[in-house]
Amino acid sequence: MTSTDTFVEYELSASEADELRELAERVGTWGEDPVTAAFYDRARPAVERLPNGLRAFLEGFAAEQAAACLIHGLPEPEPPVRPTPAHWREAAADRSTAGRETLLALCAMTLGEPYTWATLQSGRLIQDVLPIAGDEKRQNGHSSDTLLEFHTEDGFHDSRYDFLLLMGLRNHDRIPTTVASIRDVDLDETDQELLRRPNFHILPDDEHVRQMEALGGPGHPALHKMRRMQRHPEPVAVLFGDEKHPYLRLDRPFMRSADGDPAAERALDRLVDALAAARRDIVVEAESVLVVNNHLAVHGRMPFTARYDGTDRWLKKLGVGREPRNGDARHGAPAGPRVLF
Ligand SMILES: O=C(O)CCC(=O)C(=O)O
Ligand SMILES: [Fe+2]
Fold it and tell me: Which terminus in the chain has less CB density within 10 A, N or C?
């Protein structure tokens, strides 16, 4: 399963960084906040104003020239990044990062249409990835001293993202995000055949349910839907698409073979082992953005010890679909085209 670079990088020049700073300032005067849907409806023309080299690089990435890419050298933030908050709710209340988020949003819009889930972080389009006390051992972006295992972002959902963007605000300890591409994995025919069968359940990760219970209240329709998906998951295939160059969909801690077939479970474990052997560690530091193709690559994060003193690792996350969601029945989005559940 070869034919694509795993990982490519783009270093912005000083003049490109200046262009980006000016662009973010100009877009900032339009008065829309990149955590809200209105921003994306308004800001589309600004994508044309991104530096040409950066736009061409992202367009090449959208054409699947690589499974993951890293953009370095974004302009220094103004104002400087505040201490890392203790919780995403605290981060949400603070809009001093809006200028950075504007740059993340414009990169995302070069790849497609950003959207999010009603069930996560109050449906804000851009989310905070930071360690939260009490979550150390969970399989989510708020854990720390456990390995965040390889996953497709929202792999349980048919409307999962095509691309996932992670922007670094702070990463003093250089804690890597992990990425592995299906194109770097060789599986035998039998395993491939087992993994192509729609014979796996991927349950919604508990973060969707937990946050909705806490914030949406027990009667929220999104909570009902997530619970239904937990109780009655649709069987899906792990490998799909082109015979020689398949895509993948995986989140091992939330997966099982639908009919309890031990051979299917073993094939899945061998795929996870092969992905682990193909692992790339990518440090998303301040002033950089990692983009992952959510069908070609899985991602995760290495363990670390959180300090909870304002100096911890802090990333911003945004997901993108290639197609406009407006009026797209396949994605049926009663909460509005950019906030799905
Ligand atoms: O912290 C990271 O580098 C990755 C986080 C992640 O995968 C997530 O929040 O879904
Ligand atoms: Fe993730």
Answer: N
